[in-house]
Fold this protein.
Amino acid sequence: MRPQLYFLALAVCGLAACSDGAQPQAETAAPAAFAAADAQQIRQVLSTQAAAWNRGDLAGYMQGYWQSDSLLFIGKNGPQHGWQRTLDNYRRSYPGAAAMGQLDFSQLRISPIAADAAHVVGHWHLARPQKGDLQGWFTLLFRKLDGKWVIVADHSS
């Protein structure tokens, strides 16, 4: 197992172990306090992020992430921590509209872990006519903090 995946798996397992001590639930069963509205709010975070990206607003895109030095982002350069560092990395990698292209998310699978946590897997695609399209998969760990769903860990490839 690649070190990045191992670290993310440990984080997800650790979160699940700290939740309430209950036995793991079937993939289709949501924790009692996790409602359909929670899944819809997570989808809305991703939709808002895509809209911000598509208008060239990286700071707006980053509003979907936990604004903390503990935010974990795992990409091709390995684990990185911090909201500001993640924003700075995006700015370096995507310096303008042509590099950013148009983002869409698809094939979303939202799996509740606890009343305030969810695991999300999905596909991302950047349509970039001038630079060439990019695409890949992501695994996100969402937490509901202060009543707001935010990404606390992101592994994108």
